[in-house]
Write a structure and sequence with these properties.
Layout: E1 18-22, E2 28-34, E3 42-47, H1 55-69, E4 79-84, E5 93-98, E6 101-106, H2 115-126, E7 130-135, H3 140-145, E8 152-156, E9 165-169, E10 172-176, H4 191-200, E11 205-209, H5 215-222, E12 227-232, H6 235-248, E13 258-263, H7 266-271, E14 278-283, H8 295-311, E15 313-323, H9 330-340, E16 346-354, E17 371-380
Parallel strand pairs: 6-7, 11-12, 11-14, 12-13, 14-15
Antiparallel strand pairs: 1-2, 2-3, 4-5, 5-6, 7-8, 9-10, 15-17, 16-17
Helix pairs in contact: 1-2, 4-5, 8-9
Length: about 375
């Protein structure tokens, strides 16, 4: 519930209080966390008939979220999302698993007073070696007031007492910087697209832009790519990509798998003059639109990336373009990428479009943030 949709309050609310919501006829509507500092003033926990929200209620809600994921992954995968915020009935609460470690990321300060009773539930049910707390930037001041800081261990201890933490994904070994890394330390939501890239990579020269810690790069190498180039502007991310490659080389990757690191801004690097030498290019930029007003510039950015990447592809090459901007819908994103690839003599053929994996469910339209399109640079136009 946004602040401007609330007709009145019985008294001034404090962040973390339970808000009981009534309609204009004083009929009960539901319950939610009150956040006095956010435009999203109430995060609804329950809508319908009155309920008692106690530890038993939370335990059942936790079990519901876990049951969706528990038997979905085989032993060769030890990293996934246990709780996906509003979509699992935990608004503003994300819980990821990286091997023996849980990372809890909060997007509203309303959860802070409730960590003490709820964290033991996670320990009791999931028995992690450690639980790490990550906080969105918008709640840093309120968190400081309550003695909470981003990137702290709030239960147990990290293996080796440090980050990064190692975990497996389809048999590949990755590191996740759970204390300082982006999001919760890794981008678990691209797992299925990484598998698709692996299936397309054999015999190809692959460019992975916005490579971060090299997720797509490792899958491409295991899929038989001739050479893989990881491009990112962040030197720490590229160091992590290098380490991920080395810890898998010879065991999970071919010993002679070629891997080159390129430190550069992807927008500038793709726009610069260069040969059409790649057979597969992955475009997976960070969210280009954080707010509705950013949408036009984001669409323009996606178009520039796709157009310049398309020029770098050889005939028969494949472009995998993804967007994680919730403000940009799948239809508009796919359209702008296809329009960008219509220039030149080669036809663009859509091979596939994808969305979010099952451990990142989208239960309302605004939650469907992830989309990816695969385009083949096919024969010439007549």
């Amino acid at each position: 519930m946004f602040a401007d949709s609330i007709a009145g309050l019985s008294r001034p609310g404090k962040t973390g209080e339970m808000a009981v919501v009534y309609d204009t006829r004083d009929r009960f509507l539901g319950l939610g966390w009150y956040d006095a500092t956010s435009p999203l003033r109430v995060r609804m926990l329950h809508v319908g008939s009155p309920v008692t929200i106690d530890l038993a209620w939370w335990r059942q809600r936790l079990e519901t979220a876990l049951s969706i994921r528990e038997k979905r992954f085989d032993p060769s995968t030890t990293g996934w999302r246990w709780i996906h915020g509003e979509n699992d009935g935990w608004p503003g609460w994300v819980l990821d698993r990286y091997g023996p470690v849980l990372v809890l990321k909060l997007y509203t300060a309303a959860w802070l007073p409730w960590l003490d009773p709820l964290v033991p539930l996670l320990q009791e049910r999931l028995a992690p070696a450690a639980i790490v707390l990550r906080l969105s930037r918008n709640m840093a001041i309120e968190a400081e007031k309550q003695g909470r800081r981003d990137g702290t261990v709030i239960a147990g201890s990290l293996p080796g007492d440090s980050s990064p933490v190692l975990f497996e994904e389809h048999g590949l070994l990755f590191e996740a910087d759970v204390l300082r890394g982006q999001k919760t330390g890794f981008f678990l939501d691209q797992r299925e697209n990484r598998v698709r890239v692996e299936s397309l990579a054999r015999g190809r020269i692959v460019l992975n832009t916005f490579a971060y810690t090299g997720g797509f790069s490792l899958y491409a190498a295991r899929g038989g790519a001739l050479i893989v180039e990881s491009l990112d502007s962040n030197p720490r991310a590229l160091d992590s990509a290098r380490r991920n490659f080395e810890r898998n080389r010879g065991l999970r990757l071919p010993r002679d798998a070629g891997h080159e690191l390129i430190r550069a801004d992807a927008f500038e690097w793709l726009a610069a003059p260069g040969a059409s030498r790649y057979d597969l290019i992955v475009l997976d930029p960070p969210a280009l639109a954080q707010r509705a007003e950013d949408r036009p510039s984001a669409l323009q950015g996606y178009e520039h990336l796709a157009r310049n990447a398309w020029k770098r592809l050889r005939p028969g090459g494949i472009l995998a373009a993804a967007s994680c901007s919730a403000q940009v819908g799948a239809k508009d994103f796919f359209q702008v990428v296809q329009e960008a690839t219509r220039e030149g003599p080669r036809l663009a053929r859509v091979l596939e479009t994808t969305g979010q994996p099952a451990d990142h469910p989208a239960c309302f339209p605004e939650a469907a943030y992830l989309k990816c399109i695969y385009l083949l640079k096919a024969g010439t136009r007549r």
